[in-house]
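Please check this:
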Amino acid sequence: MPFDFQGKHVTVAGLGVSGVPAAKVLHGLGARVTVVNDGDDERARAQAAELETLGVTVRLGDGSTLPEGTELIVTAPGWKPDKPLFTAAHETGVPVWGDVELAWRLRGLEGRKAAPWLAVTGTNGKTTTVQMLASILKAAGLRTAAVGNIGVSLLDAVTGETEYDVLAVELSSYQLHWAPSLRAHSAAVLNLAPDHLDWHGSMEAYAADKGRIYEGNTVACVYNVDATDKPSTEDLVREADVEEGCRAIGFTLGTPGPSQLGVVEGILVDRAFVEDRQKNAQELAEVSDVDPPAPHNIANALAAAALARAYGVSAAAVRDGLRAFTPDAHRIAHVADVDGVAYVDDSKATNTHATEASLAAYDSIVWIAGGLAKGATFDELVAGAAERLRGAVLIGADRALIREALARHAPEVPVVDLDRTDTGAMLQAVREAQRLARPGDTVLLAPACASMDMFTNYNKRGDAFAEAVRELGA
């Protein structure tokens, strides 16, 4: 039965991009809404003033105390499960939902069409895969949108004026943790690598929250055949409680087996959604239709194609959607060629798993890396990439960790260690990389670290790299 919000005391935990829309929607449904927020800065006060004009109560500077009479908490996804607010809720039997759970429960509200969800999670590649999927669905003539952790509110998608045929949904591990009743049409876990362990507490808990995306799937659970980490995405499929008839569909950069999508002689092929998949395969697109055609991005395209095919999309729409897709900035983006050297911006590679995929895309690399390590170690990353490294230029607060890994695993690789953390260091880094590079090399910004020691975000870091490259060619 749908949850009746009329007159219910609902506490929204956190303002920001999820809390404000949640408070507005709940207020509109007749709930008595109180918002609690840890911060009390200028932005929070402005958001509070907006909500208070609607009749929503806002309590700034205290997100730990459970408001009296609370019957439901709707939390921002990033709030950790061990916060005192949630401990108090557990002790008093108050349920806790995330904004994704709220959106899921509001599908079909007031007779609207409840669009099915094609859901994607993973440590890396989520946003690109969801955008590819949306492009494919649009090429098939379907009303769709890329929503969720991608920055577009799911609440807006399910309660707004537009009625969609199907939604391409990016979900983080945080969002999945707080979405117990989510049941997707089909879902994919792209990959698993240690990330956000301070929030989840362990790799096992992180993987378990990622695996929630498969629970109750009705058509397909899409997994990464090539993954070697444990638990693997295939392990998560095996553990999931799905609807009768839901299938496990793999994707691989190699030749696909039955019930898999893969690559054969430069062609993306489907041996999952075809008649007599033991003997037959359907051509979907060429590798050259994927932009950029780096191995990890081809894997993203295969995962998107698998979800689209699970929804019944034609092979032609997969091809047309991939051709129409344009990747976001700072994701293995070619900036320029200068004196026979390619300069590539992958500032979005903020962890070692993403950087490993980026480094694997090129044969001879001058690597620009460094920033905030967030507890990461770099030995495995450097050891795997050592043969491809022409040189390395290190920037940022935790660059010594990468320098030490290079000394252990690639001692012959020349390293430039820039002892500065101001934003102007990027121009010097690019000039040092130019000095090390030879025609045919790639200068690759793939930091393996967060950016906040030097830049506002990874976008600003990538912009600084691109600007520095343009100065080289001026």
Notes: The CA atoms of residues 140 and 361 lie 30 Å apart.
